[in-house]
Specification:
17% strand; 286 residues; Rossmann fold; 11 strands; elongated; two-stranded antiparallel sheet; 7-stranded mixed sheet; alpha/beta
Length: 286
């Protein structure tokens, strides 16, 4: 049995390398597969685009002879996917939107393929309902799961978007980790906006001293921090930007009190002081 020799809990980061993935996921996943015993060289990815664009499985398919089920709901992207793999008989392209209902869940889609129940890698990236779609997977248990999370939420905050296919908000890392733990997985790495989990039965092979979010999530640059001064002034630090829409968030636009209504000590005339107090009391009742 292969084992991993490590110095610290971030050792997988040393293998980060990008082939087509968003960040260094390709290299990390390749190393994880090397550590796992008895791999079957099967993977699944949905939200596949053309099979190459930001793909977490293309490196394994093209360079490690993996078989794959690649699922894409958009018809144009699916045509590109088919064209990219038309000469590869190990790839099964599927033109479906994966959901969480009985007729469109991943279990039912995979039932129509040759993939084994305990395949090596599942990659989920659908910009929204990733949590709910993975939650409904019960018949198949991948050894490793890489899933997108919303990186703008703090590590201490629970957030799961509504269970609605037209909503695209995502899920925070803490909530994703708790779902993974409930499903029998442990966190191995965090890269870009992706969390990588391994089935608990293989976790000890990775010799992780500490797999907490505090330790493994090292890049939290997408977070905007909001806090208050004692006088009611709202302050922003961090990214201060909606990363997907590229719209800036500015302090003057998020204030809940006008300057004259903020509580001060000295330097303010009695009338403004009284009006400010009345204004704050009114807001409390709203």
């Amino acid at each position: 049995m292969k084992t991993a020799k490590t110095k610290n809990s971030l050792w997988l980061k040393e293998f980060a390398r990008r082939v087509t993935s968003q960040g260094g996921e390709d290299g990390i996943l390749e190393k994880i597969m090397d550590v796992l015993p008895d791999t079957d060289q099967w993977c699944v990815e949905f939200g596949s685009w053309d099979g190459k664009h930001l793909s977490n499985t293309y490196n394994l398919i093209a360079n490690k002879n993996y078989s794959a089920v690649l699922i894409e709901g958009d018809s144009k992207r699916f045509q590109d996917l088919v064209a990219n793999f038309q000469s590869n008989s190990r790839v099964t392209p599927v033109n479906r939107f994966v959901g969480f209902e009985k007729d469109n869940c991943l279990d039912r889609i995979l039932d129509k393929t040759e993939i084994p129940k305990n395949f090596d890698l599942l990659s989920i990236d659908i910009d929204g309902n990733d949590y709910h779609v993975w939650e409904t997977v019960t018949d198949y248990q991948a050894k490793v799961v890489i899933i997108e999370f919303n990186p703008t939420g703090p590590k201490t905050v629970e957030f799961v978007q509504p269970r609605d296919m037209i909503v695209t908000q995502g899920t925070g890392l803490l909530s994703m980790v708790r779902l993974a733990n409930d499903k029998g997985y442990e966190l191995l790495a965090v890269e870009s906006a992706n969390a990588i989990f391994v089935s608990r039965q293989y976790y000890e092979l990775f010799d992780m001293k500490d797999n907490s979010i505090d330790t493994l999530w090292t890049d939290q640059s997408a977070i905007t921090h909001l806090f208050f001064g004692y006088d009611g002034t709202v302050f922003l630090r961090g990214l201060q930007l909606s990363p997907w829409q590229q719209i800036p968030l500015k302090e003057p636009n998020v204030q809940i009190l006008p300057k004259w209504a903020r509580k001060t000590f000295g330097g303010q005339n009695a009338i403004l002081c009284k009006l400010g107090k009345m204004y704050r009391r009114k807001l409390k009742k709203c």
